[in-house]
Amino acid sequence: MHYKKIADRIKMLVIQPGKEWVKISIEPRTGKEVINEFTIPLIGLLTLAAFIGGWINSDSGLEHGLKTVIQEVTCAFGGLYMAGYFIHKILPQFGSDADYDSVMKMCGYSISIYYLTQAISSLMPELFIVKAAILYMAYIIWEAVPVLLKIDEDNRIGFSFMAFLGLVLSPFLIQVLLKTIFFKN
User: Fold this and answer.
1) Contact 103, 87 (CB under 8 A)
2) Number of domains into which the chain is organized
């Protein structure tokens, strides 16, 4: 997926998530392809922003920039797959038998908002209010679950909330672990 297509997909997920999820559901793209063609370029953008932000916003300079890159890449990939695993495991409790591939499509597209807010926050930490945009992920997920994961209306709120928590907390928990163990100041 080219960067223009990535930007268009994000724009449509923000502006008209319901219509975009229907479009996504009929595309022959697999979860693996979504990760490779959509999510990895966003992680690259996040990594670049983390490096530049860590370098220019720290007294430690280059060393801090490199540590920040390691941390962000680990959190982005680890958080995505941890959330995907968690979401796939709780699906049966919400009456869905969707496959792991569909879960990873939803995760790969939904987490784009998280990655973008992290990238902006890395470059301009004083704009911490940008992180509030992460809350919009809940609505994007809400629109995705009946289309991609076949969650019925009775379970939609509960599942959307759990999926949102999984997508937001997984990278955060990995970040806390990394900072505690490896990146002590």
Assistant:
1) yes
2) 1
Contact 165, 78 (CB under 8 A): no
Specify if 129 maps to a domain. Answer: yes
Q: How far apart are CA 82 and CA 42, in angstroms?
A: 18
Give the predicted TM-score (pTM) of the model.
Answer: 0.91
pLDDT digits (tens, 9 = 90+) for 137-158: 999 999 999 999 999 999 999 9
**For residue 79, is it left (φ>0), alpha (ψ between -120 and 50) or beta?**
alpha
Asked whether residue 151 is domain-assigned, the answer is yes
pLDDT at 61: 67
**11 domain residue, yes or no:** no
Q: Which domain holds residue 41?
A: 31-181
Per DSSP (E only), the strands in 4-88 are none
Residue 42 placed within a domain:
yes
Taking all residues of the chain, what is their mean pLDDT, rounded to a whole number? 91
